[in-house]
Specification:
Length: about 250
């Protein structure tokens, strides 16, 4: 039986049925490795700094395998980018709206944003890739990145607008929303740098919970500053649970 190979280097023969199963399994394995390498390299280096040769070598595949499975590097990037990335915007909006206390709502928001950091490299890299696309748009998925983040942005925007008693969002409320969300975004985009600067900040089972609590405190400070800027009376922003937590550290 004469044999040849596919574009991804998988040997094939002239048989059918069971003899084709190794071909399919081999091709699927190569495609999976390329997706994994693409996720890691695109997230860490960006699209423009990652070459097709580097992707192929990292995935232990032929360069032609990228064309065979995805058309080109851009196609691989699209495939990697379109994988699920964590936040469920509809559920997030529902949960934010259900929290009458702003501190509780912010806790929900940051917990949803930072949960991928608990789930290992895959989830973290997906989030990092999406945030990198926002900061370094490739032109390939820029619209998808904007649309992907829009529901979460609008959910937080609506909750903050409710806190301030606004009928609609003005530019300053939009700016505040971006600033608050940016606190959590930075932990994804700058995760590796933060880990080098202060590695203990991500160590231990409670590390992410401590980050969430601190980001809530920072966000509340932003809200209070915006309240003063608007000249409006400050609405309560500390939940009973938060107050009880703070009380534990009191010496009086």
């Amino acid at each position: 039986m004469s044999a040849t190979t596919t574009a991804d280097g998988v040997p094939i023969g002239t048989g059918v049925g069971a003899s084709q199963r190794p071909l399919r399994l081999g091709a699927e394995a190569t495609r999976s490795r390329l997706l994994g390498s693409g996720l890691r390299l695109f997230a860490l280096q960006g699209y423009s700094k990652t070459s097709t040769r580097e992707l192929a070598e990292d995935a232990d595949a032929n360069v032609a395998a990228i064309s065979y499975h995805f058309g080109d590097k851009a196609g691989l990037y699209r495939a990697v980018f379109c994988e699920p990335a964590g936040l469920n915007p509809a559920e997030l909006a529902r949960r934010l709206d259900a929290r009458p206390d702003l501190a509780d709502a912010l806790h929900v928001f940051f917990a949803a944003l930072l949960d991928p950091l608990r789930d290992g490299d895959q989830a973290r890299l997906h989030m990092k890739l999406h945030f990198r696309e926002m900061l370094e748009p490739t032109g390939l998925c820029a619209d998808g990145a904007a649309e992907g983040i829009r529901p979460a942005h609008e959910a937080l925007l609506a909750r903050l607008g409710r806190h301030f008693g606004l009928a609609g969002a003005d530019d300053e409320l939009q700016r505040l929303t971006v600033c608050i969300a940016g606190l959590g975004v930075h932990l994804h985009v700058g995760h590796d740098a933060i880990g080098r600067l202060a590695p203990r900040l991500f160590e231990g089972d409670g590390a992410i919970d401590r980050w969430i609590e601190r980001l809530v405190q920072c966000a509340l400070a932003m809200v209070e500053a915006e309240t003063r800027r608007r000249g409006a009376p400050a609405a309560p922003t500390v939940s009973a649970a938060s107050a009880a937590t703070q009380g534990k550290g009191s010496t009086t």
